[in-house]
Amino acid sequence: MSIKIAITGSHRLLLSTAIFSSMVAFAVLPQTVIAATTSPVAVSAIATAQINNFTTSEWLKGTWRGSAGFSIPATAQNKAAFKKGVQVRLADGQVRTINAVYFSGAHMSPMLSGSTLDASKTGYPHSVSALSNSAVQPPVSAPAAAPAASTSAAHSSAINNYTNNDWLNGVWRKSAGFSIPTSTANTAAFKPGASVKLADGQVRQITAIYTSGQNMSVMLAGSTLGGNLGYPNKLYAATPSTVAPSAPAAPSAPAAPVVTAPSAPASKPAMTVALNSFNGKDFLGGIYLSSPGISVQDTEANRAAFHKGAQVRFANGQIRTVNMVYRFGGNMTVLLDGAQVNGNEVGYPRTISVSSTGFSSQPAAGSGNVNSPADNAAPANPINLIGINLAGAEFGAGEALPGKYTIHYIYPGEDDFKRYANLNMKLVRLPFRWERIQPKLNSDLNGAEVTRLMATLDHAKKHNIQVILDMHNYYRYYDKLIASKDVPISAFADSWTRIAKKVVNHPAVYGYGLMNEPHATNGKWPDAALAAAKAIRMVDSKRWIYVAGDRWSSAFHWPSYNIQLINDPWMRDPKNNLVYEAHLYLDADYSGKYRDPKAVYDPMEGVKRAKPFVEWLTKYKLRGFIGEHGAPDFSPSAIVATDNLLKYLNQNCIPSTYWAGGPWWGEYALALDVKSGKSRPQLPILLKHAANKSCGAIGPLK
């Protein structure tokens, strides 16, 4: 967008932990549930938490409407106390058992046994207490693996900060494993057969070590692990204590099966099960879209196989543990641990395997299974995933165009490029106005403006920054639509031909952004984009061409407005180095104006708005780019949502440029550069993700 006056937009508060919101059509509570206990045994409260004051279509006073559950702040104390298997005492005195806990940003949702809760008796402003069966020791929950003996950590290692299609924060996605540096100490401490302690306290046995250059992959027994156990946590080499181990007590809650004796055969063979062919709002190929889960038929065999604690193995080899099962109308919805499952990769017509005794986390010898984790180290020439819009040259569009330099508009200076280079944000989207660089159609470019542009590119070159040239015109030239009699498509293509000829040999040019946020194009944008892209390709055969989408390039609305954009086979040819550009803002009208300063944003709102675009790219095997996204400094929830958005984009190798930096922003709430120089809360999130160097090419292109 152009200058976005930052006040935030209204938005419903929906926690991503509320995974059951869309499941009504396919799932209800199990027919047999654990009754609520109304006369608790002698227990003591180990923690008390205030119920969150959420009331929406899914929540009533912080209690979940769909089934028994409540929302509380995700503080360190609450995380330690409110775990699966722990009993809680509600405000009305009844005691329930926690079946599962879901986290979303600053909040957590413990889900309980028994029927739904009465919000008037147990919801806000009431509190809830986590109980201990002993006045001394709180109940212990073993989320994945319980050690057979007490252990102590003798050596620890940092976990590598890898996040891509195979890794999440240094945790191997396809089976249990971590990536750590190949140091002498690590090589000595981490060996097959030894034990390791994870950040959450569980202990696993090392089954294999893969070494690749400066990194080593430590593969473990048991089910796959969550990225929350990875970077910036450490991995500990565990050694048995001097106390002779005794038979371990049964954990207080079912735990994920752990392979402690690889040679022992499974007591029951795994069963192959067909996924339901469900597609729509809630499911894709039988894969649940709102949280990790699947849908299968409600048969006697499936009821026996899919129980809490069982493991399922998908067609791509990843293994998950069953957390909950719901039955309704001849079908079962099976909720799993871990990250969201990709229905395009593993959904119907593929099958899954289910086992009560677990699967080996290593491929069988001679199976031909794909790469070891060591083959997926950081690329030699990683792309820049996080960048910035350095605005200014597009300013003053409301004045009489083309306007006067330094009065109506300004180009960013060398200090701007130096600052962001030092911050490791070396991808810059540079907006400019068509009317200024070419005041008259089909005529020579304006010499003074070209000089300013080239000088700006020189600044970028000096500081090793890649520049995407962004024609910031919204599909208009002097407010007249492209593809009209006043501004024919041929004139649009002509402008890009002339611009490309001027900059084709400049090393700072990374790509050409055809048009910022086309809208109300009368369906002519696909033809205009094709003509301009081909015109550039006649001049420059190598650099990226960024093709924006109609409807203001909205990522969320992308599939509904941009199917025709790739009707011509030329626009789908990967040899043409095309990248499709979407924009994404979190406010209610998607504009980025953030008019409502009191709005609170779902932590996963950015991911929800990006998914339609990312899934469209994946479907057609194309590359993508988020040219604009931004969060206001007055909204902590928007900044949390931005963090999750960037994590999701980076996992798909989709670069993004934040809106915005550069001169003349005053105190604009989204800007990283403000006149007062006050701290910008958005910046640490951007810098965290800018450190990710796991992608060697623009994705997803699967």
From TrEMBL:
Region (Disordered): 242-262
The keyword Signal is annotated on this UniProt entry: yes
Stored Pfam families: Cellulase
InterPro entries: GH, Glyco_hydro_5
Protein's GO biological process: glucan catabolic process
Protein name, per record: Glycoside hydrolase family 5 protein
An example Gene Ontology molecular-function term: hydrolase activity, hydrolyzing O-glycosyl compounds
Gene3D superfamilies linked: Glycosidases (3.20.20.80)
Alphabetical UniProt keywords: Glycosidase, Hydrolase, Signal
Start and end residues of each Glycoside hydrolase family domain: 409-660
Keyword Kinase: no
Signal peptide start-end: 1-27
